[in-house]
Amino acid sequence: MPNETILSRRGLLAKIGILFDALVGLALAVPIVQFLLSSISRRSSKAYISWVPLGPASQFPEAETRLATFRNPYVTPTDGETANTACWVRRVAGDQFQVFAVNCAHLGCPVRWFPQSGLFMCPCHGGVYYRDGSRASGPPERGLFEYPFRLQNGMLAIKAGELPTPGAGGASAGAVGEVRA
To answer: Which segments of the chain have a pLDDT < 50?
Structure first.
């Protein structure tokens, strides 16, 4: 009667194959699980969406639109210069501002401000927006995305971290600013 504790070559290779399959399955499952749980962990992170200063309100003249940049609060070591994000700041009157994402609402191309015509224009597909960010013509179905803003001690700040879109909670178009002394 042969000893049943002796492992044949076929049995050994089958066990090694099963072990290898398990390791590959685990290596594939870890990033998938991280992706599925990322929205839960992102909500608990206050650094992802925070108030970012754009500068003193005095640097934005009334009835003018100016380009401003801010450092995205959600930065990874490999971001480099791409963490510096642009936005368009329009001072409507007094303490009323509109802060627009620089991206077109159609496909995300950067829009340019043309003060001569008072229009934002997208170079990619001809999207045009009025000075208040509303859609004028072209393929975009909506106006420019708008960041919520606040004034605190004379400093203009926006709630930034993710691109404002219609489904992004408080960071959608029509956001109301607040003034704090």
So the answer is: 1, 169-175
